[in-house]
Inverse folding.
């Protein structure tokens, strides 16, 4: 058994919705959980059997969607070469989003899950470089293009998936060489970023008995997080300019790679 395809990002660009849609396809077995982040770990070679156990079905194709695979230079800096070592025929799917929107969504997610404690979004964006780096789509995808070749990498856009989800899915099916499949796309694009029923990340895999009991209690009480961002936060014009100025060169590269006009990404 080999995993055949990966959704590698970008974070907060509808990768979960795309994963959920592909998991419905009768010829695809998707991992549980959706984001095992397997190749982000330097010791992945020692745990391949455990990785394969995350795929609990027999199918034509096996896939997963770990956005940490495109968060260079964090995690495994050789992730593209390591994935090639595992399966040189791996197919890779990368969805990109307007960087300003992606960064705001990413900040909101990390804050609401407890990873981010600073409530000053402008300060976080301008002082923590990973928000810009994850949005350097050309920088993130070029190592994969160099290792796997363009024919094994599918570049998609968030706005297309939101406006024409079935059309994008059909493109993905063709890329993966599986049959056409209709999905109830009306359920794919619901925004969960502002769902107050979100537990702190420390309860994802509770290790102590107390944490397990507390998690059950929080769920039973329909947990309401008081310290929660419940609407899209606003960022200053200066921060928007900082994002655009930082990413202009990278956006131009993506335009050339995709033959797509992304001038609207350069406006703020």
């Amino acid at each position: 058994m080999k995993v055949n395809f990966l959704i590698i990002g970008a974070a907060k660009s509808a990768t979960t919705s795309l994963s959920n849609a592909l998991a419905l396809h009768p010829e695809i077995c998707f991992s549980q959980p959706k984001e095992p982040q397997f190749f982000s770990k330097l010791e992945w070679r020692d745990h391949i059997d455990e990785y394969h156990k995350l795929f609990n079905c027999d199918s034509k194709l096996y896939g997963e969607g770990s956005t940490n695979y495109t968060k260079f230079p964090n995690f495994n800096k050789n992730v593209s070469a390591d994935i090639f070592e595992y399966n040189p025929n791996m197919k890779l799917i990368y969805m990109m989003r307007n960087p300003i929107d992606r960064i705001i969504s990413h900040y909101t997610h990390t804050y609401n899950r407890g990873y981010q404690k600073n409530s000053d979004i402008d300060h976080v964006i301008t002082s923590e470089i990973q928000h810009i780096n994850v949005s350097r789509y050309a920088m993130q995808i070029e190592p994969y293009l160099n290792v796997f070749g363009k024919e094994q990498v599918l570049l998609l856009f968030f706005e297309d998936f939101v406006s024409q989800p079935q059309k994008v899915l059909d493109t993905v099916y063709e890329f993966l060489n599986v049959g056409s499949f209709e999905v109830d796309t009306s359920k794919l694009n619901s925004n969960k970023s502002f769902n107050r029923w979100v537990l702190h990340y420390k309860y994802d895999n509770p290790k102590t008995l107390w944490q397990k009991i507390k998690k059950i209690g929080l769920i039973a009480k329909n947990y309401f997080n008081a310290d929660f961002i419940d609407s899209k936060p606003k960022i200053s014009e200066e921060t928007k300019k900082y994002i655009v100025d930082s990413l202009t060169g990278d956006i131009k590269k993506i335009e050339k790679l995709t033959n797509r006009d992304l001038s609207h990404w350069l406006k703020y």
